[in-house]
């Protein structure tokens, strides 16, 4: 009986592979998390801008967390399993063994991570082709997508990797293959990161033009020639081998996967908002923007017709919510930037010591410290003369310029805790201004957004959430389940099990509003002024670059 809430004990397992850790949850039909576990994963940075991981290490972490969340449960009640993961590139040989993606020849490190920027020369050449597929990635391909990384492998690791490779997977598809033995790819990963079109399939001319004609001649067998919608049931379900690894019954339904940001989108965007006084109540779901904030932030807006937003990825058809086009804005480093700013400050050891003494996280400590020093004014006003441009790892959206750098203006000689707290605040605000910049670009192109739905690790930070509300002027909805990305993964498992008739039905039933944070409209004038400065920062940065380029 599809969607029958009255049937107790139908559970789904969601597995979410983020940049820094793997998380799993046991989730019921109402979207409630009954158990949660997480496990850190290894990352390597053998040289600047090269970021690598290991698919064996990640699978082992998936097994650890999955076994933990199903402990003590009647395994027969588990109906489906869904994976989401970062859009990193996994390389395997023809026998599905890991291949090295590095000059050292270390085959354990067989993943080029999403934030790896090694393929700069390759992406410039790809963009110079002006091929029509680029229209569907915001006009400019990102160095973080798969085509430039594949070209880099061909040009740099021909003998040790490229010639031996049998399978290139997006990480979410690697996980579903590992669980089921099915090599079919998810429409989500292929459309968003590999230039596949939901309507027209692969474009041979693109791969030939960029020098990767190899894929065309073998009918795309190495990158995927069978494509399934996210949530579709794969093959015969969980293989006996994977079932042993994960501690689950063989044969349970396993879903075609999603990229992590897209799973977060499914986990929050379809929720029933009645009774919360939100402008999006009674309005189409297209007035909502899901913002998934972890190591990076991703801004997911959907539309009935394709909308072309310069510098914002997409439009991607059916890549997140079936039947809708998706535009995906993004900031490549947000959580990672906050961590970087805080950990690199001279007062960081003092912060750590004080937070530990109070049994608080460093961010909870910093937030309470800001409350202490703000005196009578709103906390956000502490940065009246300190401004940050947040593109320390280039700009993903809406400028699509990977050469941009971070900027800080208003530095003083002090290095104390007050100074660290205010720099942290200015960084959080800069990220929120970046979100406003992306929303303005999306609205200028035809989106009409009234409400933000935040999830991911940073949504646990009340300052980050309030600054997003104040700076965008929009209410921010937080889900009942903080781990909404895992709810998204579980929704996939639920769809694969056949317990819901559609992704939309599962979304509506399994995601719930927790709390709404409204903007402090009385502070609007201050943030409008800071936004003017924010836009000046990048204008000035471009002027500096032009001066230095001149004779
Ligand atoms: N309780 C919290 N308060 C403040 N920041 C947090 C909290 N929990 C996680 N974060 C921040 O969120 C980021 C990681 O988010 P997460 O969703 O776990 O990332 P990923 O999916 O990329 O692994 C980190 O920068 C971390 O500092
Ligand atoms: O490109 C992306 C989604 O399209 C994400 O930025 C990438 O997958 C990393 O996610 P996270 O910051 O949650 O680890």
UniProtKB/TrEMBL annotation:
Residues 289-496 form the Carbohydrate kinase FGGY C-terminal domain. Belongs to the FGGY kinase family. InterPro entries: ATPase_NBD, Carb_kinase_FGGY, FGGY_C, FGGY_N, FGGY_RbtK-like. Pathway: Carbohydrate metabolism; pentose and glucuronate interconversion. One of its GO terms (biological process) is pentose metabolic process. The gene is FGGY. Its EC number is 2.7.1.47. PANTHER family: FGGY CARBOHYDRATE KINASE DOMAIN-CONTAINING PROTEIN, RIBULOKINASE. The keyword Coiled coil does not apply. Coiled coil: none annotated. Residues 11-267 form the Carbohydrate kinase FGGY N-terminal domain. Postulated to function in a metabolite repair mechanism by preventing toxic accumulation of free D-ribulose formed by non-specific phosphatase activities. Alternatively, may play a role in regulating D-ribulose 5-phosphate recycling in the pentose phosphate pathway. Can phosphorylate ribitol with low efficiency. GO terms for cellular component: cytoplasm. GO terms for molecular function: D-ribulokinase activity. It catalyses: D-ribulose + ATP = D-ribulose 5-phosphate + ADP + H(+). The keyword Kinase applies. It comes from Myotis lucifugus (Little brown bat). This is FGGY carbohydrate kinase domain-containing protein. Keywords: Kinase, Transferase. It is an enzyme of class 2 (transferase).
């Amino acid at each position: 009986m599809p969607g029958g809430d009255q049937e107790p004990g139908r559970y789904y397992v969601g597995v979410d592979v983020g940049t820094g850790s793997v998380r799993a949850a046991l989730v019921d039909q109402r979207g409630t998390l009954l158990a949660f576990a997480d496990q850190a994963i290894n990352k390597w940075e053998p040289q600047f801008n090269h970021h690598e991981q290991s698919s064996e290490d990640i699978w082992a972490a998936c097994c650890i967390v999955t076994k933990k969340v199903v402990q003590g449960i009647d395994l027969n009640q588990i109906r489906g399993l869904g994976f989401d993961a970062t859009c990193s590139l996994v390389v395997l040989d023809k026998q599905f063994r890991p291949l090295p993606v590095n000059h050292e020849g270390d085959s354990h490190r067989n993943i080029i991570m999403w934030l790896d920027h090694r393929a700069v020369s390759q992406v410039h050449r790809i963009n110079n082709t002006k091929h029509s597929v680029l229209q569907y990635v915001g006009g400019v391909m990102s160095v973080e997508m798969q085509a430039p990384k594949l070209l880099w492998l061909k040009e740099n690791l021909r003998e040790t990797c490229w010639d031996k490779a049998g399978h290139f997977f997006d990480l979410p598809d690697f996980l579903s293959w590992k669980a089921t033995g099915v090599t079919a790819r998810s429409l989500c990963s292929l459309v968003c990161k590999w230039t596949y079109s939901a309507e027209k399939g692969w474009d041979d001319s693109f791969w030939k033009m960029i020098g990767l004609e190899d894929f065309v001649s073998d009918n795309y067998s190495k990158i995927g020639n069978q494509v399934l919608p996210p949530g579709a049931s794969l093959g015969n379900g969980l293989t006996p081998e994977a079932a042993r690894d994960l501690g689950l019954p063989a044969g349970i339904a396993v879903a075609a996967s999603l990229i992590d940001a897209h799973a977060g989108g499914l986990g929050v965007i379809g929720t029933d908002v009645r009774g919360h006084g939100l402008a999006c109540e009674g309005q189409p779901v297209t007035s909502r923007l899901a913002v998934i904030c972890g190591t990076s932030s991703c801004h997911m807006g959907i539309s009935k017709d394709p909308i072309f937003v310069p510098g914002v990825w997409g439009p991607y058809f059916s890549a997140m919510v079936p039947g809708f086009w998706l535009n995906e804005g993004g900031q490549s480093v947000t959580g990672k930037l906050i961590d970087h700013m805080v950990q690199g400050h001279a007062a960081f050891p003092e912060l750590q010591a004080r937070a530990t003494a109070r049994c608080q996280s460093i961010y909870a400590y910093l937030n309470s410290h800001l409350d202490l020093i703000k005196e009578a004014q709103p906390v956000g006003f502490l940065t009246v003369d300190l401004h940050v441009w947040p593109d320390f790892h280039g700009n993903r959206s809406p400028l699509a310029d990977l050469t941009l750098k971070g900027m800080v203006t208003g530095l003083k000689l002090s290095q104390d805790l007050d100074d660290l707290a205010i720099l942290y605040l200015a960084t959080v605000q800069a990220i929120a201004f970046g979100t406003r910049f992306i929303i303005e670009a999306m609205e200028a192109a035809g989106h009409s957004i009234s409400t933000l739905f935040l999830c991911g690790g940073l949504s646990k930070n009340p300052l980050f959430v309030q600054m997003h509300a104040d700076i965008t002027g929009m209410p921010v909805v937080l889900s009942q389940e903080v781990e909404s990305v895992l709810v998204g993964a579980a929704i996939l498992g639920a769809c694969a099990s056949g317990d819901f008739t559609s992704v939309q039905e599962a979304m509506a039933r399994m995601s719930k509003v927790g709390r709404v944070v409204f903007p402090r409209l009385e502070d609007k004038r201050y943030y409008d002024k800071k936004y003017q400065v924010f836009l000046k920062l990048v204008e000035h940065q471009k002027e500096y670059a032009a001066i230095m380029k001149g004779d």
